[in-house]
């Protein structure tokens, strides 16, 4: 089965915890703090790999997590960083945020990488915290959690030429004749349920092609499109998106009138469905090809051609007649397609050399020092179920408290990495409140001693004179 869309949950590895150690040496009674930092958690990285042409290898696997970082050691030795987890995806994979539907990256070049879920930072050991007023810190940071992200992957196959037509127009027979592709061929509609890619090799050069090398291009057989495909009927809506990655369209028409529709009607419906899906796709170069001429007398071929061009006079230079069975007209068409492929390739801009790894960084998270203070509600201290850290005022002394919430990338990270079982670590977060301006912002918002402040997973008591 062909899988061109999958939803995955990706999680960066957790950072290792910082260590609390003090230097121990013979004849040295009191050594300084030398607990090392924890290692960073591994990242989940997507890599575009030309060896994959489907997302099938992700079926049944919904959650991927990178390796955690290891804790720090004594003698200021840092823990080992977690290994990155590399997930290979086909070239042409688009990645979307499942919640917002924002397109995060388009991995359209071989080897392109995208850091989809960053690992957590390793916690600082106590060797990181000595100061003039805190010479022997007895606390360290916890490792931060890795980013957890729900993403949707969508594969859009890339090809030079895309075959577009109704079911049973002979697309599969055509591609099997001109390439080594072996699609299922049968005399009933919707034989092709998935896109098929084939490489066309031109053994003899076109007279106008310079150079002596054999030429090749990729052709894609798309599942049949029916009327209403752009609205979800049949299979067309699932595969119209693949047309956007083809450089040239080849409309294949059935002279035996699919569902009693003439060549004119078939072409109009195909164009209308593509227009409804994405109008700009019709700006691509194209040919209109009547297939199966091996089964039609010469006079009937000309009559059908004349009827079609009478309604579409501007398509005279674009109309061709071939047989995917006998091969009649195929060779000439392939060389014409090659000329067009060359022209399109020459006009295409050089692909920009991107970074080795693209990272997802929403604008809202770029300023790490920014924060927001909100007054949530009044609560009864006696019945407040959450554990409050830094508590100095018993509930009966101030029965009612205001609850505030502080949000911001950096301060929430500090809260997550605070080991609240260590008094020094709790005192440090009050120091950070002051340094970042959060303390004054809380006062301006009406916070008074004894009120509660929620930051990330923890709640702290507010001290005006902290």
Question: What does this protein look like?
Answer:
It is a single chain. The chain has 466 residues and is an alpha/beta fold. The protein folds into 3 domains: 155 residues, GTP1/OBG domain (Spo0b-associated Gtp-binding Protein, Chain: A, Distorted Sandwich); 189 residues, P-loop containing nucleotide triphosphate hydrolases (Rossmann fold); 97 residues, GMP Synthetase, Chain A, domain 3. Helix content is 20%, strand content 24%. The protein is built from 8 helices and 20 strands. The strands form 4 sheets. It has a 6-stranded mixed sheet with strand order 10-11-9-12-13-14, sandwiched between helices. A hairpin with a 2-residue loop joins β19 and β20. The longest helix is centred in the last third of the chain and has 18 residues. The protein starts with a strand and ends in a 5-residue tail after the last strand.
How are the secondary structure elements laid out?
Elements: E1 5-11, E2 44-49, E3 63-65, E4 85-90, E5 93-97, E6 103-107, E7 113-117, E8 148-155, E9 159-165, H1 171-178, E10 196-202, E11 215-221, H2 236-243, E12 246-253, H3 263-277, E13 285-290, H4 298-311, E14 319-321, H5 330-347, E15 357-359, E16 372-380, E17 388-389, E18 400-407, H6 409-416, H7 423-436, H8 438-444, E19 452-455, E20 458-461
Parallel strand pairs: 1-3, 2-4, 7-15, 9-11, 9-12, 12-13, 13-14, 17-20, 18-19
Antiparallel strand pairs: 1-8, 2-7, 5-6, 5-8, 10-11, 16-18, 19-20
């Amino acid at each position: 089965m062909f899988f061109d869309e999958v939803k995955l949950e990706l999680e960066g590895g957790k950072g290792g915890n910082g260590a609390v150690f003090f230097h121990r040496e013979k004849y040295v009674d009191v050594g300084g703090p030398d607990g090392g930092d924890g290692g960073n958690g591994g990242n989940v990285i997507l890599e575009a790999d030309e060896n994959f042409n489907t997302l099938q290898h992700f079926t049944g696997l919904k959650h991927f997590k990178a390796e955690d970082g290891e804790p720090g050691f004594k003698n200021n030795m840092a823990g080992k960083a977690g290994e990155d987890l590399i997930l290979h995806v086909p070239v042409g994979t688009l990645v979307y945020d499942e919640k917002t539907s924002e397109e995060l990256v388009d991995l359209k070049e071989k080897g392109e990488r995208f850091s989809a879920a960053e690992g957590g930072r390793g916690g600082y050991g106590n060797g990181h915290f000595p100061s003039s007023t805190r010479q022997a810190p007895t606390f360290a940071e916890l490792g931060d959690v890795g980013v957890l992200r729900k993403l949707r992957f969508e594969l859009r196959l890339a090809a030079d030429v895309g075959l577009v037509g109704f079911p049973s127009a002979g697309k599969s027979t055509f591609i099997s004749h001109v390439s080594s592709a072996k699609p299922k061929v049968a005399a009933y509609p919707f034989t092709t349920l998935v896109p098929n890619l084939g490489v066309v090799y031109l053994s003899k050069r076109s007279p106008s092609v310079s150079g002596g090398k054999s030429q090749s291009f990729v052709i894609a057989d798309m599942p049949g499109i029916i009327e209403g495909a752009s609205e979800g009927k049949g299979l067309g809506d699932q595969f119209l998106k693949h047309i956007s990655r083809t450089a040239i369209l080849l409309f294949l028409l059935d002279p035996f009138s699919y569902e009693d529709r003439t060549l004119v009607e078939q072409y109009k419906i195909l164009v209308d469905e593509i227009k409804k899906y994405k109008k700009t796709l019709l700006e691509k170069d194209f040919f209109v090809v009547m297939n199966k001429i091996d089964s039609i007398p010469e006079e009937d071929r000309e009559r059908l051609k004349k009827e079609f061009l009478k309604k579409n006079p501007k398509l005279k230079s674009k109309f061709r007649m071939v047989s995917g069975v006998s091969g009649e007209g195929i060779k000439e068409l392939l060389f014409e397609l090659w000329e067009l492929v060359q022209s399109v390739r020459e006009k295409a801009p050089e692909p920009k050399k991107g970074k080795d790894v693209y990272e997802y960084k929403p604008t809202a998270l770029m300023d790490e020092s920014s924060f927001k203070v909100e007054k949530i509600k009044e609560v009864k201290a006696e019945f407040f179920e959450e554990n409050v850290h830094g508590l100095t005022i018993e509930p009966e002394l101030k029965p009612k408290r205001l609850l505030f919430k502080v949000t911001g990338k950096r301060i929430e990270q500090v809260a997550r990495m605070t080991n609240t079982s260590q008094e020094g670590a709790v005192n440090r977060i009050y120091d950070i409140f002051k340094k970042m301006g959060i303390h004054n912002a809380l006062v301006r918002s009406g916070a008074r001693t004894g009120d509660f402040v929620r930051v990330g997973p923890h709640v702290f008591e507010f001290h005006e004179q902290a």
